[in-house]
Amino acid sequence: MILRTLLMSALALGAPAVTAHAETARPAITWQKCPSYSDDVLRSWGLRDTDFPKFKGLLGRTECGTLSVPQSYADPAGKQLTIALTRLKATGSRLGSLAVNPGGPGGSGYLMPIDLVMTGVELNNRYDLIGFDPRGVGASTNAKCPASEDDRPPPGPVTEELARTVYDSVIRSNRACASSNPGFFGGLTTANVARDLDRIRAALGERELSFFGVSWGTWLGTVYRSLFPERVHRMWLDSVALPVPRVDVFTQVRAEASDRDFQRMAGWLAERDGTYALGATKAEVVATLTEMRRSYDAEPLTFTDVDLTVEGRLIADMAGQPSVAWPELGQVLKELKDATGPTAPPTIKQIFGEQPPPPPADAPERRSQAANLAFFCNEDSGQRTFESAWNAYQKRLRDFPVTGEASVFFPRCAGWPLPVQTTRLRHSDGSLMLSGHLHESPSPYEWTLQTRAAIGGTLVTVDDDMHGSALRVPGCVAKVIDYFEKGRRTSTCPGVPVPDSAALPAEPLLRQSLSDRLGATG
After folding, report:
1. Confidence band of 354 (pLDDT split at 50, 70, 90)
2. What is the pLDDT of residues 470-483, one digit of tens each?
3. Whole-angstrom Cα distance, residue 158 to residue 386?
4. Which of 47, 245, 303, 431 could form a disulfide with 42, with the two C-beta atoms 3.0–4.6 Å apart?
């Protein structure tokens, strides 16, 4: 479906500590006709033809609008930006407005109300669902960075010389991006999005606003609650982002969690050695994949019938995937163990042989790389030197011999010239649910505990490794709805079970993972 959160590389960094602006007049939303979308666009979003009538029916009762906000809240009368939003009015007895955000940063939430209803999340019975594109994204005011150099490393292990070359390229690209429109890009902070969201609340005529956020959307919720604690009705944050504005910490903790997930995967594969032949014990599986990663780094393998290079980073990336993909990944790794080419083994060909078509020309942007970069780097108070990143990467290679190579070896925000802006988080007693997933790596569980210590709330533990699964598992969806409609809290939520042998199709997950590995930075 449209709402895809399987492998979103979401995070949370800080936001600027600026006092909330004083409202002098209620902001106004300009309501207008919603855009239409071609069938090809709907298919590119994952909708089946049989889903079209429901989607178009929901779109038909959706209200679309725009709202002006200051580019800088320090200069509220200065340059203005446009925020695009949607409202799907409650179908039953209305409790209020519930804003939603899918993460990113840089993800479009404009159609998320429709996404939720399409996937069976019936929050629309009692709430007006409010979707919006944050500043810098989609239908809101945005900008693109100048074309950057291709900093993807060639196949094989990354040498220090190559890493320095990539580092220098990142510096040039980041400086060019920020300097192309410093006033605009400098205003892409989570605190400013939180202020924009509060203007949406005021324009809707709501005294309080409810909120559901996933991944980076949890950081947005955390910042909104810290800046406007009296404006929050009910809030649920799923797959909670780290409450520390440091990309270096983000990278390290994710790498640690990814290796923990791999250890679980190795044990699962060992229990099924008769199927996958990768080792009869966890230690044997770890040894097998360690050797596979090293050998494919030494001699990358290509195929004549699939556009894919198998090298160490691909093995490392596969080893850190969530459990829903383990059955197919086990088969892929089994085939790669003895693959020689020139043609691809059957599962490799099935998964990577037919790449999804590019989105249609009229498809709206649903994820902004430029905004993703700016939100990261405007709030990153971590180290950005080559030496700090390279030394940390080398340590990860030693500590995590299978998965370490999948981690980032350069400081993503190197050279970003705009000032760092952070927000001081505030603890409050308002209604808040924080769902953390025990085994996931995109938003490791410890971040949920740290966020709860910083701002309060009720901890909800989900025993799975799936990013943002609270709205994917019916039993947990029911608890989310029960919370928003009746205020009932819970301490646990059912998660996605570890598969026995067969599992959900992993092809889309693997393709997204490959895309991330080849250079996506979210």
Report:
1. confident
2. 999 999 999 999 99
3. 14
4. 47
